[in-house]
Design a protein that fits this description.
Oligomer: single chain
Strand content: over 45%
Number of strands: 11
Structural class: mainly beta
Largest sheet: 7 strands, mixed
Order of helices and strands: EEEEEEEEEEE
Shape: globular
Length: 124
Amino acid sequence: QIRLMESGGGSVQSGGSLTLSCAASGFAYNDYCMGWFRQTPGKWREGVAFVNADGTSTYADSVKARFTISRDNAENTVNLQMNSLKPEDTAMYYCAVAFDVWPCPPHRVAYAIWGQGTQVTVSS
């Protein structure tokens, strides 16, 4: 059974840092595209960061130079290091996997499997 499980969310003050982790199981995840998305009530789920099977990554403009995505193929995890957090980063964060695509697409419709989400709250 393919499964993704996020962890590491929480509350932090503006300017602080958090690291989200996504543990994958049930498939050879290192062959596929992994992405982090976020969503706030009433808004579309937006792409944040993506990492290809070879470790190359792309980011949404809103998080460039602040967030870093990385994958550990030995541990079947993908992490999102978030620095200099802002109140507008507050959202539910989800990891997801996309199959048979290159490079990782930024659109949620391309991602087939999703985790349950982890909440990030940044206070001013």
